[in-house]
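Re: Re: ligand-bound prediction request (bumping)

Still looking for help on this. To restate: I need the protein modeled with iron/sulfur cluster bound, output as structure tokens. Inputs repeated here so nobody has to scroll up.
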Amino acid sequence: MVKGVFIKTYGCQMNVYDSARMIELLAPLGFLPVTAPNDADLVILNTCHVREKAAEKVYSELGKIHRLKIAKAHCGDTLIVAVGGCVAQAEGAEILHRAPFVDLVFGPQSYHRLPELVVGALRKGSARVLDTNFPAEPKFDYLPEASAAQGVTAFLTVQEGCDKFCSFCVVPYTRGAEYSRPVAQVLSEARRGVGEGVREITLLGQNVNAYHGEGPDGKDWGLGELIRGLAELPGLDRIRYTTSHPGDVDDGLIAAHRDVPQLMPFVHLPVQSGADRVLSAMNRRHTADVYRRIVDRLRSARSDLALSSDFIVGFPGESEKDFLATLDLAGEIGFAQAFSFKYSRRPGTPAASVASQVPESVKSYRLDVLQRLLKKQQHDFNEACVGQVLPVLLEKPGRCDGQLVGRSPYLQSVHVAAPGRLGEIVLVAISGTSANSLSGSLAPAVKA
Ligand code: SAH
Ligand code: SF4
Ligand code: F3S
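Reply:
Sorry for the wait, this slipped through. Here it is.
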């Protein structure tokens, strides 16, 4: 019998990738994805633990799911409730305690076992399960080959976990040690996607540029070499990667930006702070000047390269002078896009127990000031695109008839009237911008 599975995904793109793989894993059990929890026999929350707010959302969503489970039970229907992802990994036992109606809890490294866990839960009266092990064998060896390409763009996880232990961050604890998938496995997944119509692949990893997968030659390949390997796949027109750590930007990656036209000129390179004192307390292992030099080298390799970043304000001990150094750095580099957050105390991380926590009101003020600057930079970057002709990969229908939405090389959303051209890369004459997107018209009679 066909059953419905509803997955709600929080957090980073790696969770988005994992959720897609969970759908594939569950298909042989007769589960098809549904778009509302009401239609589901199995609800999975794929969670994020990176900031307090992200974790809190899970418990409030679980409240709603509980009411749904009770309502379904009144009608004689069963709803299996599962919590996966990074909150599950970090606080699995607490979830089972706080939410007794949750049937399954599993971590990001054990979701390949989902089918057996769900089969167990379907058996009435079976015990609740907590599976947050870090198995000795990488889960990728147990996942079916990815097949559910849903459009012209796809995520492909090539690296997982993190050994960096920045003092604010939970990721090394929730995702475990760094692991790189072998090159052959990555190429095979990419080839399959391209065969199903994928034209752009975003390589994913918590530290994607720490990638060092075993190559077909028996040697470890870096991300630059992997990108070159992927660029040989006919039909793969665009390659991106995220998220990178400044300390792992090596010569091979910079050279790939110079030599590989398929590699898009847009890099998300989190800096977190512009003050060396703070960077050191964060255990980031780079200074503000090292970051500046990396950006210079990337821009020399590819002159139109655009940058995005992550910032944390109000890290313990951050002074006004430190914050001003962050504003200076952002002002100098000029980001096309950026994410900024107030420091959030995460239990178990070194920075959480530091005495000199910054008051909430100061964090809010600093975030506001930084975000105004970053918003202005994004606006200026978008404005500078007006009058240019950009190649746009058309990904999905827009709001109006005949309108499609795609991405520029710099990851901006572009709206354009282009009836029947879904999935194509077209040249768009950019004529307008709004806060987060560009608009334009098809450049006359040319196809990219
Ligand atoms: N691996 C990436 C980022 C992973 S988490 C890197 O090394 O940069 C994504 C972003 O969340 C981080 O870049 C950071 O800006 C933010 N973040 C992580 N922990 C945080 C915390 N405790 N408080 C606020 N922001 C945090
Ligand atoms: Fe977290 Fe730092 Fe690892 Fe990024 S590099 S995932 S911020 S510990
Ligand atoms: Fe969140 Fe885990 Fe990703 S904590 S950011 S879902 S690695």
